[in-house]
Each structure stands twice: as structure tokens, then as C-alpha cells.
Amino acid sequence: MSIVRYGFVALALALAACGQNQPSGQGDGGAIIAPDEETEIGGAERNELPPVEASLLGAPSDLFTAIEPSEVGVFGAPSVMDALDPLLGPEMTEGSNVHLSVREEGDGAIADIVRTGLADDSVSAGHVRVEFRREPDGWYPTNAYRRMQCARGAAPGEWTTGLCP
Fold it and tell me: What's the gap between Cα 5 and its chain centre?
């Protein structure tokens, strides 16, 4: 595996390990789906993950770095939760705090994964957002974004699209 791929895997782990809380009720443009709710999106297996904080869900995608969903291991699957499995499997969640929110909006869905408690002392949190569209045979990622919260440097605690010092 190349150094670049290792970097993306480490970043995906870091971003998926970030954590905040998700609101209940309606969100922008659609229902907020708790990870433990049985829906077309799926997710009964992820009922232990707390929701992402509302302020993070509201962050516009232009505050993230756009990436290919495949860079974080997300591909089409029968459900959004199946597609997110590479970011939410036990090897990705062990030793960190992972928060997940999935919002369904018509034939689309947006998943936010935030991780904290990472092994990297320069990154205090990571946030990955993946947008999906529903097709007759499953859910397919259309866009993905990532950002990090640095633990040190000029602006510790601030979200950034750059590398943390």
C-alpha cells in the first residue's frame, strides 16, 4: 500500500473517529435518521453510535476538502450503512469516539461521521461527510468531503481543510 493510501486511510480513521451530538427531529431538507432506526437506509447494527452535533451537521460543504468517496473506502451498497462500513467497522472505531448522523432527503442521503480520541497528537478530531443517491439497486456515493480539527498550532480547536502541524 502506498504512503498516500496509508495517509488517506489514517485520515479516514481520524475523521470517522471524531465525535459530537446530533439533534432529533427535522434537519435541513429532510428527516434526521438516528443510526439505530430501521429504515430503507439501514443501520440497526450502528445503534451504539451517538449522533453528530447539530452545529457540525450545519457546516456547509465548502468548509471541507472535496474528495472521491473511494478515498475513504465508500462505494455503492444496498444501504447507506453498508456503504459506510469501511468507516464504521470495529477496527475504525476502537480506541476513538465515533459519532454518526444520516439524513435522508428524498432520493438522497447525507452521512456525517465525526471522530475524536485519535492516536494522532496533532489532530483532535476528524469529520467526513458523504452524500448518497438512491438507485433501484442501492445507495451510491456522489460526493465526499473531509476536514480536521487541529490540536495545536496557530488555531487549535479550529476546523481546517489543511494539514495539522
Answer: 18
